[in-house]
Amino acid sequence: MGLTYILRRLLTMIPVFLLVVTLVFFMIRFAPGGPFSAEKKVPAQVLKNLEAKYHMDEPLIQQYFRYLRDLSRFDLGPSFKHSNRTVNEIIAEAFPVSMELGLISLCWALLIGISAGGLAALKPNTFYDYIPMSLSILGICLPTFVVGPVMVLIFGLWLNWLPVAGWNSWQDRLLPSLTLGFAYAAYISRLTRGGFMEIRHQDFIRTARAKGLTETQILLKHSLRGGILPVVSYLGPALAGIITGALVTETIFNIPGLGRFFIESALNRDYTVVMGTSLLYFTLIFVCNFLVDIFYVLLDPRVKYE
Amino acid sequence: MSNSLWSDAWARLLKNKLAVFGAIFLTLEILLCVLTPWIAPYGFETQNLELTLARPSFAHWFGTDNLGRDLFTRILYGGRISMAVGIIASLISVVVGVIYGAISGYLGGKTDTILMRIVDILYALPFIFMVIILMVYFGRNILLLFVALGLTQWLTMARITRGQVISLKQKEFVDAARSVGVKTRYIILKHLIPNTLGPVIVYLTLTIPSVILEEAFLSFLGLGVQAPMASWGTLISSGVEVMEIAPWILLFPALMLSLTLFSLNFLGDGLRDALDPKGARD
């Protein structure tokens, strides 16, 4: 993999990003109603001042270039509904929370998924294979917004083991991150199992076995790297899914993350916040996909990008 | 395609117990949803404020909600909406994806490269955010929801069709059609697309559950179907609000949604295995 590939990928991201910004920006402006039309009738002068404050009185194209200029300085503008707060401040406050939730969930997904899938591949067609694989069908088919409330019901309300809302202690992290990680753990376990099963019949595994290595040694030293490839290529979609899934998880568990702000501002029609947060989400997903692709090449030298 | 291919596939499908279970469950459910206005025991909006949050009983099989509305009735009506969204949006994705993929695959060359490049770029976009933004700015209109959800799903369909068309277009019958002067448009519509239907149907059965899921996701967040209409997502969301005192209001719609998703996924997997015995699972 050459530097050219990385550079080309980064360069193609720019037009796509611009396209997204433009699309979202003009969608807002051509949509019926404005951010102030929903409020109580305000005096004409107040409305005029408000519009001047948010530069809504300028020609559309000028507003567009203003937004682009501010964006290039990472300034996402003021919030319409949270007065005296900028979108940057809101993101700075809420994003780390979402980030933490996402990372813990990803760790759960990888930890549970790879170990369950590895176990199943080590002892195929036994109890150790059937139980995790049946559970994984559940995990794939059940949506987060069903798993979450049911977990709250069982572990929070009936058994009273874990707190069901908030984001202070480490116990608060458990239920939301497990809820969010569950579906991906399920999928990853299937991919891991599939990857390992395929690699079992390769010549270099037979050689390792002929050398007299134990099955566990073969698994850890020889199959892991190849068997994990399907999981790595799934990481891109998984990360995107975890980011989207966080919207629901944060709502269910009352977590003060970015997802909740996004939904809240979508419902309140707080245009700048919706736009700023969704641009952040887009960027995040682009970057994640990019990193996953690079990581994939590092793991599998057979893959070459032109 | 010969008859024996379809009858072989049918035999293989019948052997798959989970797929058969899925098919039976879905048939019953669709029947119930179609007949809802005649068989529902109560009105969709009929409130009974004397009997709010009632437990499941003979009179109210699934209990009642916080306004005393019969949950069984509401789940039936919600199912109509969820199913309708799933089917209509998936059909939209099929039409767009199949035509796009067929054109790309048949024309080949530069056109193909450009069209597929666009698909690659769109793949990287998180569509669900686009749908949310659409719903925010243009109001939560159910027709818009159909189209928006359909448009999130057409990319894979386009890729599948393109692959099929590329392998089909070298067959003799296409040459024959071209040699007698059939127009490109008719070759694509009459000769190529009908032959791609097998994989398209399989992918359609797998698209419906993901659309139903996306709709429920949006409705759960309050961005999808709006009151007085209710889909399973809305019902689950209102169930969460009262789950401490009346968990059944959450559990029944959640169960229905999950069973439907299970059935559709099993049926889709079963169809894929039945139609493609080589087992090309990606």
Characterise the protein shown here.
- With 306 residues, chain A is mainly α.
- Chain A is built from twelve helices and no strands.
- Chain A has two domains: 21-72, no CATH class; 93-299, Orthogonal Bundle (MetI-like fold).
- In chain A, α8 (203-210) packs antiparallel against α9 (215-227).
- The longest helix of chain A has 36 residues, at 87-122.
- Chain A is flat, with a radius of gyration of 24 Å.
- By secondary structure, chain B is an all-alpha fold.
- Chain B has one domain: Orthogonal Bundle (MetI-like fold).
- Helix content of chain B is 72%, strand content 0%.
- Chain B has helices spanning 3-15, 17-39, 71-107, 109-123, 127-138, 142-151, 154-168, 172-179, 184-192, 197-220, 232-241, 248-275.
- Chain B is elongated.
- Classes of the chains: A mainly alpha (306), B mainly alpha (282).
Secondary-structure topology with pairs:
The complex is a heterodimer of chains A (306) and B (282).
Chain A: H1 3-30, H2 44-53, H3 60-72, H4 87-122, H5 127-141, H6 144-158, H7 170-199, H8 203-210, H9 215-227, H10 229-253, H11 258-268, H12 271-299
Helix pairs in contact in A: 1-12, 4-5, 4-7, 4-10, 4-12, 5-7, 6-7, 6-10, 7-9, 7-10, 8-9, 10-11, 10-12, 11-12
Chain B: H1 3-15, H2 17-39, H3 71-107, H4 109-123, H5 127-138, H6 142-151, H7 154-168, H8 172-179, H9 184-192, H10 197-220, H11 232-241, H12 248-275
